[in-house]
Amino acid sequence: MKKMVVMMGVHDERSKRRIIAAVANFHGVTSITMDSKDGKLTVIGDFDSSKLLTKLEKEWTNAEMATFGPYDPKKEAETAAAAAEKKRMEEKERERLEVSRGNHSFNGPTPTHHQICLCNHDPYNGCIIS
Predict the structure, then answer these.
(1) 68-80: per-residue pLDDT in tens?
(2) Where is this region: Disordered (predicted)?
(3) Which of 8, 11, 29, 101 has its CA 20 to 30 A from that of 115?
(4) DSSP 3-state assignment of 94?
């Protein structure tokens, strides 16, 4: 099985439906995913990648292949799990920083105490500490 990612630059739902319909009719395609936010089309299956890309480029001139290679479901699951773990750790770190920043901005900066000693070595006047 192969996996091909194509950057489409399409962000509206109508175009997304048209692209998915065009790819779904292609022989050998088993899975199609379209991310509208990024304009990224992911196609998985045993298909002729050059014919599929040619068809997409013919109808959508901004179609551009981003990646192409073998598809391994186990490797994809491991990659997804690692990405989820990384995201969870980043979220935890971000929350920790927000809490520490939040406490600092809510309570104000930690006060620093300065002591000033004015001594004039006069036996009748002691040190003044303020």
Answers:
(1) 777 777 777 788 7
(2) 71-107
(3) 101
(4) helix
